[in-house]
Every structure is written in structure tokens, then in C-alpha cells.
Amino acid sequence: MRKLLLVAIFVSAFYSLSAQNIQLHYDFGHNIYNELKKGEGSYGRPPLTTTVEMFRPDSWGSTFFFVDFDYSSGAKGAYWEIAREICFWQNSKMNWLSIHAEYDGGLSTAAGSFNNSWLGGATYSGHSKDFSKTWSISLMYKYIPHTVNTLGKRQDHNFQITGVWGINFAKGWGTYSGFIDFWREWRAWQNTSHILLSEHQLWLNLNKIKNWEKVNLSVGTEVEFSNNFVGRGFYVVPTLAAKWTF
Predict the structure, then answer these.
(1) Domain limits, the chain
(2) Who is most buried in 35, 165, 198, 224, counting CB within 10 A?
(3) CATH number of 19-245
(4) What is the model's pTM?
(5) What is the rounded CA–CA span in Å between residue 59 and residue 136?
């Protein structure tokens, strides 16, 4: 699952304030961890994922969504997030603050339906003068229906803290972007209640090559750091990736 730059200020590889892209990732998780390999009744950690992202600002704020499809001998799972930043006071001194609303959910042939969740809160965001560096932090209430804590009681009401950043460097040749999420979600089958997920993407932007200005292709990697997310405990999962920005 990838959630890159779901805040009011999004920096793309091409210094644009709006961006759409499609990504292809080869995931090495099943090569590194035995418990993530394909087994009887489970396709394990899928080796391929495609991600479609869209970010669009407007006079009322911005909208971001992404959709992930996982593949292992065909499509095996789908997940999407859609987020809205509300900031119709963009011309005021409070333009660093926005109201955040978000929905997350998906389906898997192995795990069934992912937990639906609704989030709401506030986002603080900032950027450098040329927008080559952006950052934000969001503090949110997170509603996850039908979750049960270790005492067998409903625990629908939770929280999430999200930090996001994006940096263009080396005169646009490179882009480093990522996020970190920390949230509470009771998972009786893992005997866990708090989850940490952080993804870091590093891209080489090939449109900086002479006569390749219209080739909006980037190649790079994503490294996922997680605790109690893909399984109980800490995991580091890298990918080999390509991205086309429209």
C-alpha cells in the first residue's frame, strides 16, 4: 500500500502542483522473508504492484487518491485511499492549516475485505519558495468499524498521525519522497494494537536527459519499513520500480 503525498502541497518529479502518475513495483518481500512466501491457501506477499496516483488542487483545497493492484498469477488484491484537504482560506495567514478528510479500504482474494476506515482531522503543511521541498503532518481521528480489542470489546475509535515529505534535488534529476503513518488498530490475530508504516521512494528522472524532455519516465526504488503491519514485528521490504508521470 502506497500513500505518497496526500496533503495540500504535492511535489512531483517535474515541479508541478498537480500530478498524475502510474507506478510498477517489483516487491522483494517474498524473497526476503519466508513467512511472506506463497503457500497453501495464501499467495503471500505479491511480487508485483501497480499504483495509480492523482493529486489536484483547487480553490477549496486539494484532492488526492491512489489505487493499488497486487498481482500474483493475476490480480489478487486492490486497495484505495481518497483524501480531501479543505483550505478555502488559502490567501490568508492561516493557509498552512487545512481540514483533512479521508477514506481507506480494499479487497483481497486471500484476506477478504480490508478494514474500512474513515479519518478526519487537521493538516499542517509547508514548502520551500520554489516548491522543491514540501512537508506536512496530519493529526486525525480514525474510525475503524467492527474492530475488537484484546478484551473482546469493540474498539472502533482510534487515531492516526501522518507525516509526508517530498524533495527534488540535483537540479531535478532526483526526487526523494515518502510518508510515515502511526496509528492504533486492534488486531486480535496478531495480538497488536499499534502499527507503524513508512515508505521511502527515490527516483531518477529521465526527462532531464538531453532530448528526453518529453519522456516523463522515472526509475528507482521504494523501501517500506513497518512494524506490526505485514506481520507481527519489524519488516524492511524494498522494491524495484518505474513511474510514468502524465
Answers:
(1) 19-245
(2) 224
(3) 2.40.230.20
(4) 0.88
(5) 19
110's grid cell: 486471500
Q: What is the 3-state secondary structure (H, E, C) of the chain?
A: CCCCCCCCCCCCCCCCCCEEEEEEEEECHHHHCHHHCCECCECCCCCEEEEEEEEEEECCEEEEEEEEEEECCCEEEEEEEEEEEECCCCCCCCCCEEEEEEEEEEEECCCEECCCEEEEEEEEEEECCCCCEEEEEEEEEEECCCCECCCCCECCEEEEEEEEEEEEECCCCEEEEEEEEEEEEEECCCCEEEEEEEEEEEEEEHHHCCCCCCCCEEEEEEEEEEECCCCCCEEEEEEEEEEEEC
145-155 pLDDT per residue, tens: 988 877 778 89
